[in-house]
């Protein structure tokens, strides 16, 4: 095959089916922003209330979330990132190489459904804020009861689909803008509503020390009693909850789709922005905000929707945070769903499959029951995909170390991998069987399920051909990869490269955007530390509501302006 024919062959393949080109790799800052924005999301309002309903204690929350989220970061770093960086492939493409079309299509269909529903739930969350702003009744049934709510969902969903269409860069850029602001607003919301809790429990606007703060948490937020008044979950369960919350993306390897763009394996550590800010600070902040809003409104925290909580914590900025936080998670998950759909209908572009999946997602988002069931969905979805992550891990990391041949199924020209199908099925039976017999905490089921599937797949693959050697096929694979690299290098030379924007105006805009965030935090600090009595607290809170919203507008205008200026600096 000539070089020209090679070029035409790879040109006709969809870009998503090839390893990521070297010139399209990203620095760690891209992933820090991406994960921070995705995991400082609208679900944090719900999960903050969930820990209250499950009856966790304050110290268990503080220590348990810290330990669990560190374990999650390490899972991304040592399990997902190495495979993603070494192969530069999404899980969907990699799975096709080792398990054949049959299992890949089945698995991709499962992922299309899972990520579409997650994305739909986040669109619904964003719509609750808009619903609140326009005084549209809360949607409490499983179906929509107000046509204007459907219109709002459609409008919110169009934004999600539009951004997801443009691929990884657009998702990363949008997340990079939103992440700093989301973190500031979650932190500020907790600072603004903590005095309301303190007044209700301690009779003063601010706790006098650590002991008072723990007392405040134990009495008004994380009481140790669940919603039925019985003793709740403990430290071990909180650790497991935090670790298992994202098993679908780290142990399940879904985030190969994102981390394949990383320059180094160590960029898996960039997920710490999402875990430490989103699943640690934001979960704790959401609990404080929910409890504070409940005190002001006079309802239980579990009766509030994200729109209620955000408004009483942040005023009009609260509407923005629910919308933006819902968008950032919805966009990333819709991007994943589009990738999975494109892997099924590989003759169509990712944009086309994303549009179709996006429209279906918007339709699902019109039904509020999706949002109310998001936590069970995430938990079961994680257990569903963990066996597949185990199969890929075994193939990529274990097989070369024990003398087995990686990609043996592909080299044998198999379209149906019995070891993969059977291992996935047995892994599901094993995992859900442990759950049915209540052998251990549900939050930790992914660990024995993952290990069990690795053992089963390794044994079965050895019997079906993984022990054999395929020198000719391996040589052909090596030559093909070299040709792909040459093709991508040639294509990269023809693509427009972007300059780094170092203009004075852009620097000024960056300073203004950062200043807006700092002012927001300062205003929240004044509410927390400079409210001597209840009257002054209410006055300071109203000032925060007003000027924090102005700062929000300034931040997004200037941050987006900087982005546009940076994109316009190009070399011909």
Secondary structure layout plus pairing:
Elements: H1 3-12, H2 28-39, H3 43-53, H4 58-87, H5 91-133, H6 147-165, H7 167-201, H8 210-220, H9 235-244, H10 256-259, H11 272-297, H12 306-314, H13 316-344, H14 350-365, H15 369-372, H16 374-398, H17 408-411, H18 418-436, H19 446-466, H20 471-494, H21 504-529, H22 534-568
Helix pairs in contact: 2-7, 2-11, 3-11, 4-9, 4-11, 5-6, 5-12, 5-13, 5-14, 5-16, 6-13, 6-14, 7-11, 7-12, 7-13, 7-21, 7-22, 11-12, 12-13, 13-14, 16-18, 16-19, 18-19, 21-22
Percent of residues in β-strands:
under 5%
Main structural class: mainly alpha
- Calculate Rg over CA atoms: 25 Å
Whole-number tally of structural domains? 2
Poorly predicted residue ranges: none
Short description:
This is Purine-cytosine permease. The protein is an all-alpha fold and 572 residues long.
Q: Would you give an account of this structure?
A:
Keywords: Membrane, Transmembrane, Transmembrane helix. The chain is mainly alpha-helical and 572 residues long. The chain has two domains: 474 residues, Hydantoin permease; 74 residues. It is built from 22 helices and no strands. Helix 4 packs parallel to helix 9, helix 4 runs antiparallel to helix 11 and helix 12 crosses helix 13. The radius of gyration is 25 Å and the shape is globular. The model has no long low-confidence stretch (mean pLDDT 83).
